[in-house]
Amino acid sequence: MNTPIEYSVLVPVYNSERTLEPLVMRTVSMFRERGRPFELVLVEDHGTDRSWDIVCELKTRFPQLITAVRLARNFGQHNALLCGFAYCRGRFVITIDDDLQIPPEEIPKLLACQVETNADVVYGVYERKKHHWWRNIGSSAVQRVFRMVFSTRGDITSFRLIRSRVVEQVRQHDQSFVFVDGLLHWYTASIARTTVEHIDRQSGRSGYSLPKLLRLANNLLFNFTTFPLRFVTIIGLTISVLSFLAGFLFVLRKVLYDVPVGYTSIIVSTFFMGGVVLLLVGFVGEYIGRLYALQNHKPPFAIQSVLTREETGT
Q1: Distance from C-alpha of 180 to C-alpha of 79, rounded to nearest angstrom
Q2: Residues 245-283: pLDDT tens digits?
Q3: The pairing of beta strand 191-196 with beta strand 121-126
Q4: Rounded to 5 degrees, what angle do the CA atoms 60, 65, 70 make?
Q5: Residue 117 to residues 38, 153, 180, 192, 194: CA-CA distances in angstroms?
Q6: With 0-12 CB in 10 A as exposed, 13-18 as middle and 19+ as buried, what is 78?
Q7: What digits encode the pLDDT tens for the residues 44-68?
Q8: 162 φ, ψ to 5°?
Q9: What is the pTM for the complete model shown?
C-alpha cells in the first residue's frame, strides 16, 4: 500500500546549476526531520546551462521522491508551474524558486499559517526584498496592476502553498498566456499571507529583466481585465466634450471679439486627435491579437521528456 503524499514541492528550474542541488538537499532534509510524506516535482524550463543534467542526477539519487520534467523550449516560469501541477499528487502544493533567495527552511511557516487559517492559498511575503532596484521597480508595477485588476491589497509572490482542489481547477487553463496568481484569485477568495525571509541571491542572475516584468504587467492588464477598453470609452467621451467646448469657445470669440481662428489651432488639434486615435486603436489591437492567439489554440507548454517518481509499497 502506498503512503498518501501530503505535500508536493514544485520547483520551476531555469539556469540554476549552482543552487539546484543544495535546494533539493535542504528541502529533503527539512521534510524528513518533520516526518511529513512529500514529493518533489522539478520542471526544467529548457535553460542554457547544466540544470537538466543535475535534475537527472538528483532523480537518480532520489528516485522515489522526484518527478522530473523537461519542457521542449523556454515557456516561462508560470507556464512551467502549470505543467508541473499535472504531476503533483500531494494534498497541498508548495511552489518555490530555484535560486535559494527563499530558504526552504521557511516552508514550515506556510504550513503553520495554513493550519491556523485553513486557507486554500498561503503566500509567503517578504518583509524586505533583496532584489536589485530595477527588479523592484518591475515587481512593483506587476503588484500594482494585480491589485487593481483583482481588487486586493495583499502582495503576491512565487512562494505559495495551494490546496490540491484549487490546483485541479487551475490545471484546466489552456491558454498560451499563464499567470498563476491571477488564476488562483479567480478560483478562491480564501487566501492568507505570512512573512518569510528573503535573502541575497546566491549566484547567477534573475530570469526576470525589467522589460520582462513590464511585459508581464501589460499581459496581466490585457488578459484579466477589460479596463483598457473602458479607458478607451472614457478618453473618447472626454475628448468629445473638450472638443465641443473648445469649438464653442472659438466661435464665441469670433462672434464677440472678431478674433481670427487661424491655422495653429487646427494643426494642433489634428496632431492631437491623430495621436489619441492611434493610441486607442493600439488598445483595441491588443485584444484582437489575444483573440487571434486564442483561436489558434497555442498550447501553454510542450514537454520534451518526463522522469516519473517510482512508487514503493509500505
Answers
A1: 8
A2: 777 777 777 777 776 666 656 666 676 777 677 777 777
A3: parallel
A4: 65
A5: 21, 18, 22, 7, 11
A6: buried
A7: 999 999 999 999 999 999 999 999 9
A8: -130, 135
A9: 0.77
